[in-house]
Amino acid sequence: MSTREAQRVARFGTTVFSEFSALARAANAVNLGQGFPDFDGPDEIKQAAIDAIRGGVNQYAITTGAAALRKAVAEHAARFYGQKVDPDAEVSVASGATEVIFDAVMALVNPGDDVVVFEPFYDSYVASVEMAGGRCRYVRLKAPTWRFDEAELAAAFTDRTKLVIVNTPHNPTGKCFTRDELELIGRLAAEHDAVILSDEVYEHLVYAPARHLRPATIPSLAPRTLTVSSGGKSFSFTGWKIGWALGPADLVKATQKAHQFVTFATASPFQEAIAKALLLPDSYFTGFEQLYRAKRDFLIEGLKAAGFEPYTPQGTYFVVADAGRHAKADDFETCRWLTREVGVAAIPPSAFYSAEHKAEAKRLVRFAFCKGDATLAEAVQRLKRLA
Ligand code: PMP
Ligand code: GLN
């Protein structure tokens, strides 16, 4: 730790994603760790970005987001969720979901406020809350169903609760929150006058019969829910970093106030391209889910054959598995061994748990299946040597 750095970053290490991608490169391992596809999204969407650059869309975008993208976000919300969204007052664009989440947390959480976070969590939530001076109150999702305990949730709410962060479909477990669960969260949020931040970046990666229920479509939750999504997962362009928030005008406005001074505006040509992507026909989205269902099933079979005990995800492009007889002293050791010795990189899920609950992830490993068929086949072949 450098004595020159401020307290708000002093506790942060290198993210588990950077650590394991570097380890994967060094070990020449197949990288099923960090969640990014090894293929690109649709050619026509790439072309739209090229056209925007060639067509002179190269200066600062409007701080709230390019008009075409805000309109496309509203149209997408109407098409898939029946929502009526005002693209001028109820949508805000930022540089990826990660930035919108940071902006929203900065905009809504005061020092000393409490934030309810489900565990395991996407790592940026806790970092954002801590940078805002807030405190996380954790609620565990428990294997194998990843349901939470009602009493534990109720106990996580305090008279300082300002925000509840929900992620559905959920990274890393793949859980899709049910209506009952969301209504319960909504009731407690209402009792404490808390805002719900719903991270839905995997909204288009859900495997039937599971379905994605957008919390903001539940009438009792709508007035207090800020929905976040991005183009990275749905269109396989994680490097473009185009994200957005939609919801009640006051919440969107507050988020924008922070965004103005974090990045001011987001990459303009990519906004035009993602606007086109959101308007792709239904067949794109159904084809996308079919593609991923086949990848999920292939990896799950391979993991079972290699002696792992995977939990079948309802959504996302991740599968969490119990390491079974391959479990080492803890999940970091198991994942380092997998990367170095077996040649398949994976993420240790304890990185998504608070210090007090890390032990729950000791035997777990997270694999990403957002990879081409040849990459997945190579990974499975390497894993099967363990059998
Ligand atoms: N939320 C979750 C649950 C994620 O897994 C990720 C990872 N990409 C993000 C947010 C960040 O999305 P973006 O790349 O758009 O910042
Ligand atoms: N969301 C991706 C994952 O969970 C990676 C995001 C990142 O690298 N920060 O693997």
Short description:
Helices cover 42% and strands 14% of the residues. By secondary structure, the protein is of the alpha/beta class.
Kindly estimate the percentage of residues that lie in beta strands according to DSSP.
Answer: 5-15%
The average pLDDT score comes to: 97
Tell me the name of the CATH homologous superfamily of the largest domain. Answer: Type I PLP-dependent aspartate aminotransferase-like (Major domain)
Structural class, by secondary structure, is alpha/beta
The top level CATH class name of the largest domain: Alpha Beta
How many strand elements? Answer: 12
What is the first-to-last residue Cα distance?
Answer: 42 Å
The ligands found in this model are: 4'-deoxy-4'-aminopyridoxal-5'-phosphate, glutamine
Total domain modules = 2
CATH topology group of the largest domain:
Aspartate Aminotransferase, domain 2
The percentage helix is 40-55%
Low-confidence stretches: none
Helix and strand element order: HHEHHEHEHEHEHEEHEHHHEEHEEH
Give a quick account of the main beta sheet: strands, pairing sense, barrel closure: 7 strands, mixed
Any overview of this molecule?
With 387 residues, this protein is α/β, with parallel strands linked by helices. The protein folds into 2 domains: 7-41 and 283-384, Alpha-Beta Complex (Aspartate Aminotransferase, domain 1); 57-278, Aspartate Aminotransferase, domain 2 (3-Layer(aba) Sandwich). Helix content is 42%, strand content 14%. The chain is built from 14 helices and 12 strands. The protein has helices at residues 7-10, 16-27, 43-54, 67-81, 96-108, 123-131, 150-156, 179-191, 231-234, 249-262, 268-278, 282-305, 331-342, 373-384, and strands at 30-31, 91-94, 114-119, 135-140, 161-167, 195-199, 225-230, 243-246, 309-311, 318-322, 344-345, 364-368. Strands 2-8-7-6-5-3-4 form a 7-stranded mixed β-sheet, sandwiched between helices. Strand 9 and strand 10 form a beta hairpin. The longest helix is centred in the C-terminal third of the chain and has 24 residues, at 282-305. It starts with 6 loop residues before the first helix and ends with a helix. 50% of the residues are buried. The mean pLDDT is 97. 4'-deoxy-4'-aminopyridoxal-5'-phosphate binds at residues 35, 96-98, 122, 167, 171, 199, 201, 230, 232, 238, 241, 243.
